[in-house]
Specification:
mainly alpha, globular, single chain, 3-stranded mixed sheet
């Protein structure tokens, strides 16, 4: 499980990103990656803001007391994030006009590396997860604001 999304705290430099955020940055904004990396490797993801929302809902909903929840917005391969970045118009990161293309659309036919049953969290918490496009838009806008 990877936690992505914009950082709320001050980061002095790109080197201060946590591991999952740095992996996302390298995949979406870095140098070109191999086809196997982009179309086979991946995991499940959730936006950091959805993690916070799930914690809040678990405290507020009586039915959540004493329960454990799996929260995940879904599975991905890295190509999905490149495709999401290229689907955004206008680009939230104009300082990077040549984002890597990878293998457009290849994520649609890739076998998801993992899948989690999140139906309990949806039923009890009523949580709505951010899409890859929403996570990508907001994360790229955050990087642009930080001049990365």
């Amino acid at each position: 499980m990877q936690v992505f999304g914009p950082a709320i705290h001050e980061l002095k430099s790109l080197d201060a990103l946590n591991t999952s955020a740095r992996q996302w940055y390298n995949a979406v904004l870095g140098t070109s990656q191999s086809e196997a990396f982009l179309t086979v490797q991946g995991s499940a993801y959730i936006d950091v803001r959805d993690v916070a929302e799930a914690h809040t809902l678990a405290l507020e909903k009586e039915a959540a007391g004493g329960e454990r929840f799996i929260i995940s917005a879904g599975s991905y391969v890295w190509q999905d994030w490149l495709d999401a970045a290229h689907s955004l118009s206008p680009s939230p990161i104009p300082s990077h006009p040549n984002l890597p293309l990878g293998y457009p659309g290849a994520g649609k036919t890739a076998k998801p590396p993992v899948r989690y049953d999140t139906s309990k969290a949806s039923r009890v918490l009523g949580i709505r997860y951010r899409t890859k496009e929403e996570v990508t838009r907001d994360t790229l806008a955050d990087f642009e604001r930080r001049k990365w």
